[in-house]
User: Which sequence fits this backbone?
């Protein structure tokens, strides 16, 4: 009986001309464009908050280019650490024959 129901549902899904999202009238809550804009806004707000803190300390303001450079440097440090860790794991695997 369960197999019959599954087969009926599969055949119904194949016969329906739209997608499953159309069938249940599902629409995403946010578009990709809105998500990208929210990400840009978040980054801008973080830079503004950092600049307010830096001004109180007497440091110079960060620009978007500074933030991108710092992110690239951070990614490079993490990448080097990841490669060193993987190399160490490879050494241990060779040592223990794994």
Assistant:
């Amino acid at each position: 009986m369960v197999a019959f129901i599954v087969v009926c549902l599969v055949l119904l899904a194949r016969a329906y001309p739209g997608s499953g999202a159309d069938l249940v009238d599902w629409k995403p809550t946010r578009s990709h464009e809105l998500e990208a804009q929210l990400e840009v806004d978040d980054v801008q707000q973080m830079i503004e908050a950092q600049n307010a803190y830096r001004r109180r300390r007497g440091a110079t303001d960060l620009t978007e280019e500074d933030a991108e450079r710092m992110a690239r440097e951070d990614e490079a440090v993490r990448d080097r650490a990841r490669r060193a860790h993987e190399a160490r794991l490879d050494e241990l695997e060779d040592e223990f024959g794994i």
Notes: The chain has four helices and no strands. The radius of gyration is 26 Å. The longest helix spans residues 64-96. Residues 81 and 92 are 16 Å apart (CA to CA).
